[in-house]
Amino acid sequence: MALYRVEKDGRELRIHENADELRSNLAEYIADLSEASIKEHGAFVVALSGGSLITLMGKLCEAPYIKTVDWAKWHIFWADERVVAKSHADSNYKLAKDGLFSKVPVFYSHVHSINDTVSAEQAAEDYEFVIRQLVRTRVINVSEINDCPKFDLVLLGMGPDGHVASLFPNHSVLSEKLPWVTFITDSPKPPPERITFTFPVINSASNVAVVVTGGGKAEAAHQAIDDIGPDRPELPARMVKPTQGKLVWFLDTAAASKLDSASFWE
Ligand SMILES: O=C(O)[C@H](O)[C@@H](O)[C@H](O)[C@H](O)COP(=O)(O)O
């Protein structure tokens, strides 16, 4: 039985007894958003991260979702991607292709991987161009507040240091306001070269889910979710604040083990 905390600013916290319960809940959440988005604007525009998220999404490849989800209407992007060949073991595209999209009937023309033949800077520029083209052709909606693309769902993991996508603590890209996609060449988590959505794009999404498991992330989850006072450093995960969209945290009990338990209820 998941425990929920719904806070005044629309954030939702879903804490699960174990990874299997989280996987079931996450698959249902994504399938429901897919159905609602396709009903609303004829597509489901989703951005993935790398890491354990892909395994945790695995139930989407099983019944009933493999048949009930309208996979042909999905447009798939990456909120961050390593600047390596798409066939490389470090590629988030390869991770998602092997773990998910080779098992479900997505249109490969809707799977938007990076140009893996250029520099990180050029790959970020190219990726932003593809997103801009899909905004122009109205496949992707635009935020009512700024001109940022409004993804239907951005799926994030979180590192033990509180990074999300490839937005790492104390990095200058955290404050990028203009580009939709930027790049780093000094990632503390290997490999060093990555492209990443900036926070304006993440926070313009209609829905953002941060999916975190394991006790090694409990301190970061506490600092990202709980009221830790004004003088503590703001972790990147705490900067995920959708301007109009909804934020849902998917945690297992280990990752939630340091949360201020007084403020969530069943
Ligand atoms: O490309 C990446 O490395 C990821 O996008 C990264 O942001 C990941 O989501 C976190 O590091 C959590 O990874 P785990 O869930 O595997 O710990």
Structural overview:
This protein is of the alpha/beta class and 266 residues long. The chain is built from seven helices and twelve strands. A seven-stranded mixed β-sheet has the order 1-2-12-11-8-3-4. The radius of gyration is 17 Å and the shape is globular. It binds 6-phosphogluconic acid. 6-phosphogluconic acid (6PG) binds at residues 49-53, 80, 92, 157-159, 163-166, 189.
Secondary structure layout plus pairing:
Layout (H helix, E strand, L loop, with lengths): L2 E4 L4 E6 L2 H23 L2 E5 L4 H4 L8 H4 L5 E5 L1 E3 L9 H10 L18 H17 L4 E2 L6 E2 L2 E4 L24 E4 L9 E4 L1 H4 L4 E6 L5 H8 L20 E7 L14
Parallel strand pairs: 2-12, 3-4, 3-8, 8-11, 11-12
Antiparallel strand pairs: 1-2, 5-10, 6-7, 9-10
Bound molecules: 6-phosphogluconic acid.
6-phosphogluconic acid binds next to loops.
* Largest sheet: spatial strand order: 1-2-12-11-8-3-4
Chemical compounds bound to the protein: 6-phosphogluconic acid
What's the gyration radius in Å?
17 Å
Q: Based on DSSP secondary structure assignment, what is the total number of beta strands?
A: 12
The fraction of residues assigned to DSSP E strands is 15-25%
Largest sheet: 7 strands, mixed
Low-confidence stretches: none
Number of helices: 7
Order of helices and strands: EEHEHHEEHHEEEEEHEHE
Structural category is alpha/beta
Q: What share of the residues lie within helices?
A: 25-40%
| Outline | globular
Mean model confidence by pLDDT = 94
**What is the CA–CA distance across the termini?**
9 Å
Family: Belongs to the glucosamine/galactosamine-6-phosphate isomerase family. 6-phosphogluconolactonase subfamily.
GO biological process, one term: carbohydrate metabolic process
Keywords: Hydrolase
EC number: 3.1.1.31
